[in-house]
Amino acid sequence: MVTFVDRVTLHLRAGKGGNGCVSVRREKFKPLAGPDGGNGGHGGDIVLVADPQVTTLLSYHHSPHRAAGNGGFGMGDNRSGAAGESLELPVPVGTVVKDAEGEPLADLIVPGTRFVVAPGGQGGLGNAALANPKRKAPGFALLGTPGWEGDVQLELKTVADVALVGFPSAGKSSLIAAISAARPKIADYPFTTLHPNLGVVQAGETRFTVADVPGLIEGASEGKGLGLEFLRHVERCTALVHVLDCATLEPGRDPLSDLEVIREELANYPVPEGQVPLLERPQLVALNKVDVPEAKDLADLVRGDLEDRGYRVFEISTVSHEGLRPLTFALGDIVARHRAEQAAAPAPERVVIRPRGAERDFEIRVEGGTYGNVYRILGDKPVRWVQQTDFQNEEAVGFLADRLEKLGVEDELYRAGAVAGSTVVIGPGDGIVFDWHPSLSSAAELMTAPRGTDPRLDLNPRRTTSQRRERYHERMDAKAEARAELEAERLGAGGAGYELEDDEET
């Protein structure tokens, strides 16, 4: 049965925003008193909270699908919809949040840190909020946008002050059980520990945490054994304790060779940018199992070589508790100095949030298609506006066209080479596809004029008095000619009838 999980994939769906309402206020003797449709409620967010009381991701391993509440619809009489209920997910301190591709999004190392991993959708505006002096009674409302939906990866990296590293069966679990109240599984076979164990140690006035990292073997940094699964739990530790087995019966092994193998694996493990490499952190050596006579002799033999390399060496026994007190006080001094250095360190640089006015709100990509180029519009605003549009309402579609024009989409389409009838797609993937018909405006590309002429060069389009007089005389002359032709036709028709009457009398 799984009892410890430090890596899981969550399938999240934030709440959808509620639709706005189309409503008209009705009063006695005043049937059309203006729009009063309310706004839709925002969808609920999904928030990750670093909780010190949580130590594993086991609950998310069993139920990885999580969803927040949807926003309510707007209603008449200016009643807004209820906001969707947000979902808070407690995670252990030290959890790293990554996207589906493995790119880090947040590192929750401070208790109480909150990170909105899946923002909810926006509620749509009702027709009351869309009214303005030019559009006094909108016959449409905006739809709510869908919330964020996708996968995120949670990876737990144990937050501890000291890490115990060493070969399998070196006595790390016995050591943490002897110096703290932790009760890890202890047995006489390798890889007994299958997940990190945490213990709290009190050394004088200093209290610190110790992590028992599962046994490492040669090639752990390349994925052999359980190395890659649990080496990341060493990243956050202030100091390292090399627990060396002085009573091993395996041929070809001794404390010095074991130390070199572990050091090589720690050196090959890459730590995140900005962190101190593992081998540059304070390191102590604990020669374990000195309660065995042969192990005591071996510890006395290798102690000098280890001290010559610059290590502080402690001969310990987890059975008789020999040497444990000096070891814990030495670790307490290291942790206390590190905490004092952190407290005296200068505050981090202030984060300056600059306005995004200079950045483009969208981009246009030209993609080849079977019947010509396809112009794809990408950007948060155009995509969100399309999601908010009810395409069954012509007024709402016209409002979308006005918004895109004000954003400068038509000008960019001209620059990209689009012409009337070109295929335009808004959004990634299938998106919204339509044939582009540019709106008539004062743009030079839309001006109709004879070939080789430009009406913008006519600096005085108003006619002069002589031109108006000449035009008047032309109209008068045309009218006189028309009257003369009509008179001639009338006289011609009348003469023919008179001659016919004379013939009949004859």
TrEMBL record:
Region (Disordered): 450-506
Keyword list, A-Z: Cytoplasm, GTP-binding, Hydrolase, Magnesium, Metal-binding, Nucleotide-binding
GO molecular function: GTP binding; GTPase activity; magnesium ion binding
InterPro entries registered for this protein in UniProt: G_OBG (IPR031167), GTP-bd (IPR006073), GTP-bd_Obg/CgtA (IPR014100), GTP-bd_prot_GTP1/OBG_C_sf (IPR036346), GTP1-OBG_CS (IPR006074), GTP1_OBG_dom (IPR006169), GTP1_OBG_dom_sf (IPR036726), OBG_GTPase (IPR045086)
Known cofactor(s): Mg(2+)
Residues the entry annotates as binding Mg(2+): S173, T193
Domain Obg: 2-159
Gene3D superfamilies listed in its UniProt record: GTP-binding protein OBG, C-terminal domain (3.30.300.350), GTP1/OBG domain (2.70.210.12), P-loop containing nucleotide triphosphate hydrolases (3.40.50.300)
Entry EC number(s): 3.6.5.-
Coiled-coil positions: none
Basic and acidic residues: bias regions: 453-490
Binding, GTP: 166-173, 191-195, 212-215, 288-291, 317-319
The family this protein is said to belong to: Belongs to the TRAFAC class OBG-HflX-like GTPase superfamily. OBG GTPase family.
Self-association state and partner proteins as the record states: Monomer.
Its job: An essential GTPase which binds GTP, GDP and possibly (p)ppGpp with moderate affinity, with high nucleotide exchange rates and a fairly low GTP hydrolysis rate. Plays a role in control of the cell cycle, stress response, ribosome biogenesis and in those bacteria that undergo differentiation, in morphogenesis control.
The protein's name: GTPase Obg
